[in-house]
Write a structure and sequence with these properties.
Length: 89
């Protein structure tokens, strides 16, 4: 998935988590926690969604909460999931 398409997809997903509508524009470097889009509990839903998008399995031990704080960082996690495990290790 291309970066811009990912951003659009994640904005729609995050808006669904917060019952927001209208697809408010979130900048790639906006902090999703500080701006009220995500909570530490909703990260589990984000992790599951990233697994669905990538077809991979996310190992939570490899990431801290900050890894899920912006669209840019979420895209990095998605890229990690799409990279074969041998290449990451």
């Amino acid at each position: 998935m291309e970066r811009e398409a990912f951003y659009r997809t994640m904005i729609e997903f995050v808006n669904g988590l917060t019952d927001e509508s209208g697809g408010e524009k979130v900048a790639p470097d906006d902090n999703l926690f500080d701006n009220g889009y995500l909570s530490s509990l909703s990260v589990v839903q984000v992790m599951t969604f990233l697994e669905e998008l990538s077809g991979g399995i996310l190992d939570p031990a490899l990431y801290d909460l900050e890894s899920f704080s912006t669209l840019e960082r979420l895209y990095g996690v998605l890229e990690d999931l799409r990279t074969p495990a041998e290449a990451v290790a």
